[in-house]
Amino acid sequence: MLDQMGGLFGSGGSLLLVLIIFVIFIILAFKVFKIIVKTIIIAVIAAIFPFVANYIFNMNIPVTIDSVLWFVITAIALYFIYFLIRGGWKIIHYAFSRKGKKK
Questions:
Q1: Is the pLDDT of residue 96 over 90?
Q2: How many CA atoms, within 13 angstroms, populate the side-chain half-sphere of residue 13?
Q3: What is residue 60's DSSP assignment?
């Protein structure tokens, strides 16, 4: 039946191409998963911050849903800004590095 449908991966039998795309997909999915986990950790730490600031450091931060959400959203936004700047810095550093160039 698979033979009549053109094989499992099409008529050209492009198993290698499918495997390469699958490996790239797994690598990208793992990187995205790591970013999501770090984002969740940062959000939890940011949500805890008002409580720690009030009870340990005796600051006068209101502990309401609005203030906790503000800290969480601000922390996530700052993390993504840091992530973009770090990525841009890596690209610029790689583009202008002297590795592999003859002097």
A1: no
A2: 1
A3: -
Residue-wise pLDDT tens digits, 72-94: 999 999 999 999 999 999 899 88
Q: Please say whether the beta carbons of 46 and 70 come within 8 A.
A: no
**Is there a contact between 8 and 2 (Cβ–Cβ < 8 Å)?**
yes
- What's the rounded Cα separation, in Å, for the pair 88 and 94? 10
**Residue 62: strand, helix, or coil:** coil
pTM: 0.71
DSSP state of 98: -
Cβ atoms 20, 26 nearer than 8 A: no
d(CA 63, CA 61): 6
Alpha-helical runs (H) found in the chain = 15-55, 65-96
User: Of the candidates 100, 95, 44, 97, which has an alpha carbon nearest to the alpha carbon of residue 72?
Assistant: 44
